[in-house]
Structure formats: C-alpha cells, structure tokens
Design brief:
Chain lengths: 343, 343
C-alpha cells in the first residue's frame, strides 16, 4: 500500500470512535467526554494526523481538472436538471481556468474504482458528485483518501450534515415547496395537496416536509394533512393514478404541489387541467406545457460548487462556508388559453 | 511559426487551386484536367506533402482524450438531443478507454482558440464537433493543422461532402421525414403539410426535401405542394401562428410533419389536437405529451463517431467508410385518451 497521509478515518479507527466523534474533538471538544477526548488526542498525536493535510496540498497545486459523472440517458423528464447543472458547471469552470472531464459508472463500487483510476492517472484533481444519498460510500472513500471533492446534494445522514470534511451545496427543497404552498394559498387556493415520492428519499421527504410546514403554519392539522397527500413512483402513469386517489380522498382540492415535473404532469392529466399544479425542477416540459414549477437555480449551484472547491484546503475545520443551501425559485405560470389538458 | 507537416491546404495554396481539386487529384485524377493535375503534382512533390501524415501520427499514439463543446443551457425543447449525444458518447468512449473532456466557446473564432489551447496543453488528442454549418471555419482549421476530428453533422458545402480529410457522421433527416410522410399516408392521411424552418439551414432544407420527395412519389405536384408548407422560426409561439396560416391556405389538411418537436408542439396547439402531428428529435416533451416524432438515434451516432475516430489516420484517402449517414427512426404514437390539447 502506498504511503499516504493519515486521515480522520485512520484516527477514528485507532481511537475506536466514529469519524463524527473525531471531528467533534477537533472542532467542539467541549461536547465530548474527557476520556474519549483523550483517546482521540492520543491517536491524533500517534498517527501525526493533521486536519486537511491532503486538502492543503491543493492550496499550492490548485486543481485544474474536475471530474463529473455522466450517466447513460435514461429518458423521462427530470434528467434535464443534471444536464443543466453540467452545462453551468462547464461554463463557470472554464471562466476559472478549470476543465471538466466526464466519466461513467455502473454503481457506487464501480465509481470508486473510477476515482482510483482517474487519480492514479493524475488526470483529475477534484471531483464534483451529484445525487448523494444516505450512507454514500463514494464520499466516505474520497474523505478517507484525501481527495478534494464537492457534492451537489447534502450528506443525507443527519449527524454528518456539518462534517467539516464534506463540502456540499444543495437546494433547499423544503423552503421551495413551502413557498409554493404559501403563494398558492395567497392567490386563493384553500386546500393544497401534495403528490410526493414514497417516504425514504431524503430529497422527497424534505419536499413533503416543506408542504406540511406551510399547511401547519396555516392551521391545517396533521389529521387533515394526512388526507391531502399521496405517493407515487417517478412516472406520469403512476402519478396520474395517485392523483385520482388523492381527488377521491379530498374532493375539494384547489391545487396540488408535486415532488417533480413528472408527477406534476400526471396530476395535470388526472385533474384535466381544472386544478392548479406546481411541479419541481422547472424542466423544458413544464415550460412547454406552461405549468408552474420550482426551479433549482442550477447556475447558482454550479457557482457555489466551484467556490467551495476553492475553499477545500483553505478553510478551517468547521468553517460554515463549507456548506451552501440555495433557495430555489418558485416559477408561477397561469395556464394560458393556449393549452388545456383533458384527462 | 513552429515547423509542421504540409497539409492539403498548403498544396492547394501553392498550386493555386481549391482543396477539393487537390483531393480530386489524389483520389480521382481522371476527372481533373491535365494542366491542373500537373500543377498539383508538382506542389505535392515540392512541399513533400503526404496524405494523412498528421493523422498517421494517431495510428501509433492512439487518441485517449476527446474534447466536446458544451454550450450554456439555452432552455427550450430540442437541446436535449445534444445532451443525449453527449451521454451516449461518454458511455461509449469509456468502453473504448477514451475520456471525454468538455470546453465552451462563445463563437467559432473563440472555439478555434480553444482548439489551440487544448492541443498546446497536450490535453486533448481529438475533437468531436456537433452543429456543423456551411463554410464552417472550425473544420477548416482542424484540417489545416492536422488534428484528428469527427463531426456530428455533414460538411454543408456540397463539394466537400466527400472530402477525404473530413470524417463525419450525420442523421439522414430527408429519409426520416419522407418515411414519416409515407407512414402517415399509409394510415389514411391524404393531405400532409410541412412546417419547417426558413430556407437556408442545411438541416432544415433536407427535412423539407424529404417531405417534398414523399409527396412527389405520391403524385402531388409542385404547385400543390407549395400550398402545403409554411415556415416558422424555432419557437412554440411562431410555430402556432405559422400552423394557423397553413390551415388557412390548406383547410383540408390531415396531418403535419414539423422540422422539430418545438414546431410540432406549436402545430398541435394551433390545431387543437385534431390533426396528426409528427415532430423531429423525439424529445422528452414529445414522449410526455405523446405525439409522434422522428428519433435521431444518437446512440448509433455516438458509436459511429468513435469508430470513425479510430479510422482517422488508418483509412486511405477517399475511403467511403469515412462518412456515415444514419437513418433515423420514426416513432409513431397514437394520441391516447390521456391527453388532448385545446388550441
């Protein structure tokens, strides 16, 4: 095994604690029990661990090539968001003298092998990852091996949200959906339903939480809210069927907010265009058909990701600037006479 | 200026003829007048020109990184095609051990400066260009400087279509549109109109020519055809207005074939879903709304582009394998009860 600098994971292993605990000892020692603190401090000294040692390397030799994964085209409506992000990232990277290189991967394990290949070949200096998920082994590996990266997507395990080694930018779906609900209500919609993905995806749960929070603000209690939401997998047909179920259990609905434009289109078809529908991602489909949608502002996301890459290795541990939460735009469209839908 | 190998352009300049003439002398000497042939042969000898000398370099040092331009996201419906091409190219490139690198450019001059930068930095071995147009200075520059490239899009100056130094793959829009017209007629549509772009774009003119050829086959004469087609710029609103004009001049229309999905959507709205409409590009919008469209088969295009890159430097001058014309798929969709449009 090649000689490498010790990482926070090495310290955690040596001290028999979690990475988070090591991070706490380094950043907020007062919240850690003394015995644990001593064990971690001893391990740090023994291994010669220096926070951000590998990242500091980047300070002198600035990254010039960043790698981004590009998946095979899967069809459907919502993939457009990651393509828009790639366009924005490429444009802004070039303005900073950086080059974007693409790779593909069949799964997380394969992606980690690609990291190794790209790093071994000295082809790539940093990674920008999208579509993070709970327990994502890719970010663990990059942290472990000290390679600079930024994710579009927060770390979905709650205790790691403030991990000082994980730089991330994300879009505040909760705030975006809550704002859409408030605007629908302000324009006269009394009962606003939510068509979401099945519970368990961080992104989807956040979006539903935004809807629930806005209704709670308006005095709609949990029992009532339970009648106003249904789930569907990401397909127009599933969304259409789910929206019909929703109308069955809440016939006096005025509007529906959906977790994606795909789900929104299903809801529009099911309701025959009679209800106001707000989607998520502001895809070309929403624009073409003319329904409202929440825009992720991927241009801001790309700008923030590159700023964060600049900070990797320069910020101190626990630097609040290592995370960015972008508030999305709610794009309200009034369905014109041009296009109605009959379900 | 750095010492470089003579190119076909140097020979053309020295002999006072066009590049095409040089190419003819090399490939089909019998079609060139003797005096011209002698001048070209003398210039070839004097300069020490060897066909494909620079490309031959590639034979030993195989390209491992290919550069592709990625433009800022422009919104709209049809941009999805180039994104799909990039996905397919990245996936297939990786399977061949190649890496895709992205760059941006504000115009052709800027793009040529980028070529120079990427070549000087030894970052890139070959280029894949999309969106070629008549008199494209980018391909001229690449040929002149002996850098391997393939275009998605034929060279739109007719005399250069068989340029042995320009490797290209393109989609046969003419054949695709003609096939769509034939299938509409076979399923009972008697009068099939065409909603195209204003004359002058090679791609658009080819698509209109396919429609005209299929109608001519069916005995519709030029005078009648003139009433069955109108132009619109690439926007839903312009297409909608143009489709209304078309209905005004040909009220007994049964179907419309459009040069793009954007134009098709405008036609669908204008006709209130009463006519059959076929678009071009089979975008997510066509899929979501459920109208027919012609699919460019970008996966085949990507595969062909990489095969051609492999051939650059190995094929003999005039090798017919240096060009590929892919026949697109006509995807016929019957508008379901799910979604009607009211104009």
């Amino acid at each position: 095994m090649p000689r490498r600098l010790p990482t926070v994971s090495d310290v955690a292993r040596a001290a028999g604690v979690s990475r988070q605990t090591v991070s706490n000892v380094l950043n907020s020692p007062e919240i850690v029990r003394e015995a644990t603190r001593d064990r971690v401090t001893a391990a740090v000294a023994e291994l010669g661990y220096r926070p951000h040692a590998s990242a500091r390397r980047l300070r002198t030799r600035r990254a010039s090539t960043i790698a981004v994964r590009l998946d095979p085209f899967a069809g459907g409506i919502s993939g457009a968001v990651l393509d828009r992000f790639l366009h924005a990232l490429t444009e802004r990277a070039e303005a900073r003298g950086l080059t974007v290189m693409l790779y593909t991967a069949t799964d997380a394990g394969d992606e980690i092998r690609q990291f190794q290949r790209l790093v071994d070949g000295a082809v790539v200096d940093a990674f920008v990852l999208a579509s993070t998920y709970s327990g994502d082994p890719r970010t663990e590996w990059l942290i472990e091996h000290g390679h600079p990266f930024v994710t579009f997507g927060r770390p979905w395990g709650i205790p790691e949200l403030d991990d000082p080694q994980h730089f991330w930018v994300d879009v505040d779906g909760r705030a975006g959906v809550a704002e859409a609900v408030r605007r629908l209500r302000a324009s006269g919609a009394r009962r606003v339903g939510f068509l979401g993905w099945p519970a368990g995806s961080g992104t989807g749960d956040e979006r539903r939480a935004g809807w629930a929070a806005a209704l709670a603000e308006a005095g709609v209690d949990a029992g009532e809210r339970a009648l106003l939401t249904v789930d569907a997998e990401e397909s127009v047909a599933a969304a259409r069927a789910a929206a019909k179920r929703l109308l069955g259990q809440a016939s006096d609905l005025d509007a529906i907010v959906a977790a994606s434009d795909t789900l929104a289109l299903g809801a529009l078809i099911a309701t025959g265009g009679a209800l106001r529908v707000v989607g998520f991602d502001n895809t070309p489909v929403a624009e073409a058909i003319g329904f409202s949608s929440i825009d992720q502002r991927v241009d801001e996301v790309a700008a923030a990701a590159l700023e964060l890459l600049d900070l990797v290795g320069r910020s101190e541990a626990g630097d609040p600037r290592s995370h960015r939460l972008i508030t999305p735009d709610v794009i309200m469209r009034t369905p014109g006479p041009a296009l109605g839908l009959v379900g």
